[in-house]
Amino acid sequence: MINSYGAKAKVDPKDAKLSMAHFFVAFGALALGGLMGLLQTLVRSGKFELPLGIGYYQVLTAHGVLMGLVLTTFFIMGFQYAAVSRTAGTHSNAARTTGWVGFWLMTAGTLMSGTMILLNEASVLYTFYAPLQAHWIFYLGLTLVVVGSWVDGAAQIMTYAKWRRNNPGKPSPLLSFMAVINTVMWIVATIGVAATVLFQLLPWSLGLVDRVDVLVSRTLFWYFGHPLVYFWLLPAYMCWYAIIPKIIGGKIFSDSLARLSFILFLLFSIPVGFHHQLTEPGIDPAWKFFQVILTFMVVIPSLMTAFSLFATFERYGRGKGAKGLLGWFKVLPWNDARFIVPFIGMASFIPAGAGGIINASNQMDQVVHNTIWVTGHFHLTAATSVVLTFFGISYWLVPHLTGRKLTKAMNKLGIIQAWVWFIGMAFMSGAMHIQGLLGGPRRSAFSTYGDSQQALDWIPYQIAQAVGGTILFLGIILVVIIFINLAFFAPKGEEEFPVGEAENLDEKAPMVFENWKLWLGILTALILFAYTIPFIDIIQNAPPGSKGFKTW
Amino acid sequence: MHMHKLEKIWLILGISCLIIFLTTVGVSAFYLGNKPPSCLTTIDSEKVDTTKPFDKPGLHKVEGKEWDYELVYVASAFSYNPAKVEVPLGAKVKVIATTKDVIHGFEVAGTNINMMLEPGYVSEYTTTFDKAGEYLIVCNEYCGSGHHLMFSKIEVVK
């Protein structure tokens, strides 16, 4: 045995309490953000108007902030905190206190930014591009969310470091290693958004400085914006790599290769932000293409991931005596919500990833940039692959943490929920992809653009999106019912926190994977290589800065 | 660290596809000239109306250049100037645009003309209009409460 899996099979109740605190905020954000999403699709169908003078873009900002920033960050931090506690041992009192401080900072920040959105002082969408100027409290709130997440993540790193000290020369438990990779990536990535908010947007919205450099701000934002999506995705990969094998009764295909793919994700998620800025002026096309190449490097760990997951499934199935080319597929536990819900997410990642390749393909981006195709794309990646996996995790993790059981009824409701989600998303995301290819813009309220024939042709797709959005909202009601049941009403009992074991326990993961100086050194070098020269160009050739505008 | 033989084959195939794919995109961009719009010209966004060529928005015939016409747009919340132009079929046109206030999008729906307009920068894209009909220009970057009312039209005529 190289890893002390199972040494502590239960998350300590004190750690469980902090994880659950994160999940209450996360699922609260999901319920509210889901309602906002429903309203958007209804408005854009052209058949419905918002009451009480509520603005479409106010609702859109709330949806983006709640789903993209609050739901994800709180769920991920809560999940990783529990995963580290389960695999590297109970958090120390100091680490737990650190975690709570982080949690409250994030919560306070969320409330501050949320209040400003409600007051219509911050209808700048969750990307808050300058020179649109929101109220300074909105920016301060976002700063607290980010700083809080650093403090929260520090708790995981402290416990990981303690495990390493107590087990010299041994590879750390896989789930803890993966959680720390994701936290480190998050910290390095959020430096960009923290820099633009603290040094540019906050002083500017307070009136301390008059003008802001728009392209510098956008470049710092997108330095953060792309790894943000990998920060969402990697916890799903943690589940696929290290938890699903245990749920189905199989083994992790290769512990070492799983670690290698996480390191590759760490290295190639950050120095790639220009692929979100491909159609922008002011950036040299050669540097854009260079970052496009780096972007595509994540294809390698993605292929490794796909291989290992299906290898695990096939080996498990053949072990059960399945015959033929695809016989193993049939014997997978299709009636277990803990498996099938993330599996639907996994399968959705195949078209989702293919769409992402198109978006990042340099000049090909002109066909889809800022069309609703892009919205369709990240509703497959984030809002299907990632979110369904998060739902699947919560179906065993919430009862594990609250000392309850996932009942047969809730298991069944979980499976129904996933299919409802899949069908709703097929309508909504499918229609968004097609409308985007026809040129329909994203982030726009209903409009016929002066009765243009092209815009009139988009309307049927907008109606399909409203149908999909309505089905998805039913899915949200179902998942909230399951969450409340598992948190408060399910029968008392012990629900397992499944942690997979590697197929070959004699193969020890190379210790070089835990050499943080090496990986952080390579990461820094890649970031400096990809950004230094173009960033100096952007600053040296900068036009006069922009004053703030409030155009809503 | 051990890697399964089939996984090696899988990765070699995948990485080969990746190299072929990136080479195709790169050759198309840098050899055939299909780079995404990346104009490096800057402008004072508060003096757009008095800066050439934005002092005269609209379609202008030009001589002695690689393109036949220059089509100049000034964007501001929530409109484009000009609001409508006619372009002769088959004309090679350089579209030149900028914004006076916040970030806007400039997308001619159903074509490859799709670029960001950012305060302080000029955006350009050269293309040939080879299909007759009406084209809608939409703002595809959120710019405020009237974002979805911001459009212009191009009529490609024989």
Which key phrases capture this entry?
heterodimer, A: 552 residues, mainly alpha, Cytochrome C Oxidase, Chain A, globular, B: 158 residues, alpha+beta, Immunoglobulin-like, 5-stranded mixed beta sheet, 10 strands, elongated
Describe this structure in words.
The complex is a heterodimer of chains A (552) and B (158). With 552 residues, chain A is an all-alpha fold. Chain A contains 16 helices and no strands. Chain A has helices at 13-44, 56-88, 93-118, 136-166, 174-205, 214-248, 255-268, 285-296, 299-319, 327-330, 337-359, 365-368, 372-402, 408-437, 453-489, 516-540. In chain A, helix 2 packs antiparallel against helix 3 and helix 6 crosses helix 13. The relative contact order of chain A is 0.13. Chain B has 158 residues and is of the alpha+beta class. Chain B has one helix and ten strands. In chain B, a hairpin with a 5-residue loop joins strand 6 (104-108) and strand 7 (114-117). The mean pLDDT of chain B is 95. Classes of the chains: A mainly alpha (552), B alpha+beta (158). At the A-B interface, helix 2, helix 6, helix 7, helix 8 and helix 9 of A face helix 1, strand 7 and strand 9 of B.
Task: Annotate the secondary structure layout.
The complex is a heterodimer of chains A (552) and B (158).
Chain A: H1 13-44, H2 56-88, H3 93-118, H4 136-166, H5 174-205, H6 214-248, H7 255-268, H8 285-296, H9 299-319, H10 327-330, H11 337-359, H12 365-368, H13 372-402, H14 408-437, H15 453-489, H16 516-540
Helix pairs in contact in A: 1-2, 1-3, 1-13, 1-15, 2-3, 2-4, 2-5, 2-13, 3-4, 4-5, 5-6, 5-7, 6-9, 6-11, 6-13, 7-9, 7-16, 11-13, 11-14, 13-14, 13-15, 14-15
Chain B: H1 5-30, E1 58-61, E2 69-76, E3 79-81, E4 84-88, E5 92-99, E6 104-108, E7 114-117, E8 123-128, E9 133-138, E10 151-157
Parallel strand pairs in B: 2-5, 4-10
Antiparallel strand pairs in B: 1-2, 2-3, 5-8, 6-7, 6-9, 9-10
